[in-house]
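Hi R.,

As promised, here are both runs. First protein below:
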Amino acid sequence: MKITYIGHATLLLEVAGTRVITDPNFDPHLGRFLPRVSAPGIALDALPALDAILLTHAHADHLSFDSLDRLPRDIPLYAPPPIARWLWGKGYTHVEPLAPGGAVRLHAERATHQGSRYGIDRWRSAANMYLAETDEESLFFAGDTALMPDTHALVERVLWTTNRTLDVALLPIGYAPPWKPGFRRGHLTHDDALTLFETLRARVLIPYHWGTFRHVTATAHDAINRLRAVLTNHGSRERVHIIEPGESMLVPPVASAA
């Protein structure tokens, strides 16, 4: 399994010969006031041939129409059903709804995140987490979510019930100042991500959602700097792998890693 961090929530996942891109966003800025601080780790035009696109929700940092318009339309574009219906109406006829509980060797579960595009369009608030698995490997991509008692339920249902262990947890990290307490109702802090990592019992944690865009209440590196500081004395530091935009990590199956 190979994971390449392109930036923010955009990762290239290569599992069992299948290439999937997550939440593709190659935009130079978000809106008018949130600039990109690092170039995409792979230029969109330099991407290898893809087999599928995963969308978790409709927020502009995860759903870029400019990026979708430049990606192939002869491969499936998986999205939560309300987002899929919206995209179909906008002409993205390769979109396929993947509801929580659905599976095509790709499993989806509801994320705790209010993901509507414009705030008032609550009918587009659905947000997915995904679990990709083969007979030998597994990978969990959380999109955006809060830390809840059941955030691990998808991994429990698909893997633990068959005595399997999650290989890779791809988890977002964020930072909000103390005066923004609502942040954790729909996002993970670096501490939350570490807690979820331990709950998931994954072999490897790769954090994302950092180092790409400057936000209103945080710089692009606030969260990763705090994570790095915590890891100096954390018991799981050897299993947490921070890869910079453009860098890749190879994660061998358990049998090969032993």
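And here is the second one, sequence first, then its structure tokens:
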Amino acid sequence: MHMLLGNSLWNLVVQSDMMTKFILGGLLGVSILCWSLIFHKYMTLRVKKQQMLDLLRALRKAETLQDVVALARIHSQTYPGYLLVTQLEQAKILLQQAHQKGVLSDQEISLLEERRYQCIDDMVYSQEAHLPTLSVTASVSPLIGLFGTVWGLTNSFISISHKQSADIVAVAPGIAEALLTTIAGLLVAIPVAVAYHYLKGSVSDLEQQLYGISERVNFIIRLHLLQGKNSDELSLASQEAS
């Protein structure tokens, strides 16, 4: 541990060639970028997950369309509130058509289903932004470190051939310097890979919660359609649709 954190490791970095320093600097920069993304994503998903839980609890108590409209007004500025308001806006359009024609076709009801699924897909896609960066970093960093190791070993073997000596005292520093980039690549890749899978799982949980909210709202809207009421109750929600 002392060797890993003390002067010995730093001396290897200082004494390394320009290619090794370039690789180490690149890995350090990528690590800083990834940890910034991880922290930002973690905090964002944490807030949105709490918003989802609050809305889900409230929706369990909602029995009528008036209750859903009231929730849409309260949560309109939140992440799940966007889905709620958008779904009510689409339902309002269908109810207006039903009021004019007297009946809704199966195709029009299916269109409402497709639009709410598309809204969920768009919302999930927005939360997956930058996650590919973490995935690529976790996959490529060890390879970059391995490239630095091969580069360093090649230089070490060339140096051995010039000195015409395989003395361990002369060979060891070069090999240690070569392995330095592999260590750096793994130190970058392992925590980023763990964070990527954690955040990916959080987005999947968010998607399931969105579907839960959408299904509950869709159930109440369908009851409203079966009762044959008009669309006046949806006007307040549609004003806040984004």
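A quick note on the second one: Residues 49-239 form one domain. Let me know what you think.

Best,
J.
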